[in-house]
Amino acid sequence: MCFISIGLGMLLQPNTDEAHNEAYRGIKEIVGHKFANPRKFKSDLLLNILWDDEKAPIGTSWNKSLGEEETVHKYLNSNYMARFIPKS
Fold this sequence. Notes:
Layout: E1 2-6, E2 10-15, E3 27-35, E4 45-51, E5 58-61, H1 64-67, H2 70-78
Antiparallel strand pairs: 1-2, 1-5, 3-4, 4-5
């Protein structure tokens, strides 16, 4: 599930066009996050990611390939969410 981004890293409405394959895209920056559910499990985490081939950040649901990205690890550490970094 993707979300359309509006200023300051806020996520607005779902965008069901998933034509892009995140596994082949680079992350420029993670500009924010939110949880889809108040229980705050990793599976509920949505990262607002600026991909290298996009002009605006896109809300991206947690997936295995995000868990392997160093950029994501740095973001999670700096936002006190290291518990979501997969153990090697």
